[in-house]
Amino acid sequence: MLESGNSPLSSDAMSPLFMFLWAAGGSLALEIISLYNEIKAERATGLPNYYKNPLFWVVRVLVTIIAGGLAVAERAASPLLAINIGASAPAILQLLTNPPKSTPGGGAGGP
């Protein structure tokens, strides 16, 4: 039996592998919720075509791997923090690839 301080879920014993797995789970949880919402909304017509495209799933797996890597790089101290990093990774990556446009007279990057 593990002592309370030696649990794989405790922050002092969390290995990079656990950081990676928790973050990957957080990232995949978003896709599960998105898929669930698509199923509810599209019952009569089926799923969107991008879910049937193998390239979508290849990219989604790569995003999940990046999410796990971000948690390891950040040295997530707890499973909850790793899950949060994994869940936010797709949004962070989206912002990095498509930064918000500046607006005249202020806003992001404005004078």
Total E-strand runs: 0
Mind summarizing the main beta sheet?
Answer: none
Number of helices: 3
Q: Whole-number radius of gyration?
A: 18 Å
- Unreliable runs: none
Shape: globular
Following the backbone from N to C, one meets helices and strands in this order, namely HHH
Termini Cα gap:
61 Å
Overall number of structural domains: 1
Helix content: 55-70%
Topology:
Layout: H1 16-41, H2 54-74, H3 79-97
Describe the protein in words.
The protein is mostly helical and 111 residues long. The protein has one domain. The chain contains three helices and no strands. The longest helix has 26 residues. The mean pLDDT is 81.
Describe this structure in a few short sentences:
The chain is an all-alpha fold.
Question: What attributes characterize this protein structure?
Answer:
111 residues; mainly alpha; 3 helices; globular
